[in-house]
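Posting for a labmate who doesn't have an account.
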Amino acid sequence: MAKPGAGQAARDPKRDTKSDAGRERAASGEAAALADPDAVKRDLKDYALTRGAAAIGFADVDLIEKFAPPGHGPRDLLPRARTVISVGVTGPTQGTWRTPAKVMTSIGTNVSRIYRVAAGLAFRIESAFGHRAIYCPPHVDPELGARHPMQSLKLHAELAGIGARSLAGDILLHPEFGMLYYGSIFTEMALPPDGPMAENPCPAPSCVSLYRKSGQTPCMQNCPVECISGSIDDDGEIEEMRFDMFRCAEMCQQYENMPTIIERAFETGDVLEREELLYGGEAQSFFYKATAGVDTNAQCFECMRVCPIATQGPQVDPLRRGALKRGEGRPGDGEG
């Protein structure tokens, strides 16, 4: 019998038998899951949660197609899509909420975690369950410009039951995790939908109380450009929400900064003003964001900074979540 060559390890028959048995158990488990849609959902939920997702929900494609604008439904990207899976990851740390606005806009997002979870789910569906799947592009439609995304991730999350529209500019809020960042997966595999949330966590009781006294909620009072308004009915529920997108855009959505800077530089006849427009601090900050790929061109956070759901929900605070896991109670209770 020939000996193993250099760099070639001798095979252990016992180890091979154990490996084969493990693969057989995994294959049989996946086969059983295929026959049980609820088991598939549990598998995908476990996969997402172990990779950093806070919430996951399943939506009916037909229902999404009903509300999506023409050309922006799931089947415009995956023609045979039957299920939309929405995942959400948590927002900023408690420390981040206490930083100045210029810091908050730089470190307040968690979008990279969405990419990891959502892309992984698409591969998991295809490799484990044999159905086509795609990670929905979270970007704008290149044919329509910066104000038109390819898909409404907000609509997907709302109909999947992991967020409900708030008074704060229609931002989705989760009763446990507050403000989440969302990603979507489309698949040709049919899975039972979860449906929208039965109750909207917004407005919080303290917001209703302030509205009764002042006619405004915290998000309305603290918006730097007053782009949020609305009303609360006698039952303490949202009656109407109004959001001035263009006023908000002037404050924080800097998609048009580059042509605006160039246009103003052409128009001015003052050499010093032209230099300031092209090379001043504001221009340098924008060009740095654009060239470095920093995702801070549409961030403000001031409405969420004062939102009790976004900052004080049961699972919002990483400090409290960690303390609960360690059995230490809730640190910081009563602190501002």
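Reply:
Got it, the structure tokens are right above this. Residues 36-187 form one domain.
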